[in-house]
Write a structure and sequence with these properties.
mainly alpha, 3-stranded mixed beta sheet, 3 strands
């Protein structure tokens, strides 16, 4: 099972590398077209993709560090490295988003009568198509390997597709004697960059502080209660280590059971949590009832 988890992390690297290559190409294209044909929205979208390069690099670094085995300083391993990397990337994205907002708002109130060329709109639509297919690939990969960081990258891919569509709409609208619509769209793009950064930060901070979905806890509880020999669940907790889920549970069993039978029940609880919910490790404590 441990070898499979490391193989999954290696597969996750592939999704991060694909995202990095796509973002490098698309950000260069958007910034070149945006500056050449005077589109504030496309320039903002291009800057958005430069932050995505950093975010994807953070995911890649995190996935590589997560593969390091446990050592004296990290007895539980390095699984949280990708979560830390995601949080660092979120700070960078928010900072760039604020910069894009500032420049776009300044442009809205400046005297400007020139509308960007339609090639900027076509560039946005082309980019949206590319990012949608990359989103589909990373989403399916994240589900396959149960990786929170790759799923976060996939969500970022999808938001980038929507941002590019919004950029194209703003540019097309500016052709109808509404040149202010292009920088106004850039304001929206800047807001979306900040929102994506905030969402990544919120999810990363939840995992780093050992937050966990209570609905999942309820599912685990019902599964444990259905194990033969378990009379009740006194306490149950869970936390994430990268793409691993660790569960601590205290179960109640018949007080007349000997140690061997009680141990067999706890082993069965561990097995069913692993098989049914893909729990990486379960610590089961038995108490008489």
């Amino acid at each position: 099972m441990e070898q499979q988890k490391y193989a999954d992390l290696k597969m996750g690297e592939r999704g991060a590398v694909i995202s990095i290559i796509a973002y490098i190409c698309l950000s260069a294209l958007k910034l070149f077209i945006g500056y050449t044909f005077h589109s504030e929205a496309l320039k903002a979208d291009g800057l958005n993709n430069t932050t995505d390069i950093i975010a994807s690099l953070a995911v890649l670094i995190g996935l590589k560090l997560s593969q390091k085995p446990a050592d004296e300083d990290h007895p539980y391993g390095h699984r949280k490295a990708e979560t830390v990397a995601s949080m660092v990337a979120s700070f960078i994205m928010i900072a760039v988003g604020i910069q894009v907002l500032y420049e776009a708002i300044t442009s809205v109130f400046s005297e400007r009568n020139e509308s960007p060329d339609l090639i900027s709109a076509w560039t946005g639509l082309f980019s949206a198509t590319i990012m949608y297919f990359i989103y589909r690939y990373n989403r399916n990969l994240a589900r396959k390997i149960n990786s929170q960081s790759v799923m976060a990258a996939a969500k970022d891919n999808l938001s980038d597709a929507w941002v590019s569509i919004g950029t194209a709409i703003g540019i097309i609208g500016s052709q109808f004697d509404l040149p202010w619509l292009d920088p106004l769209t850039a304001v929206i793009v800047g807001g979306l960059i900040c929102k994506t950064g905030w969402d990544i930060f919120r999810e990363a901070s939840l995992h780093l502080t050992d937050g966990f979905d209570q609905k999942e806890i309820e599912l685990y509880t019902e599964t444990v209660k259905n194990v033969f020999g378990v009379k009740g669940v006194k306490n149950i907790r869970a936390r994430n280590y990268g793409n691993h889920t660790v569960v601590d549970v205290v179960i109640l069993v018949n007080s007349n059971l000997d140690i061997r039978n009680a141990h067999d029940i706890s082993t069965q609880v561990e097995n069913v949590l692993s098989q049914k919910h893909d729990v990486y490790d379960a610590h089961v404590h038995v108490e008489p009832n």
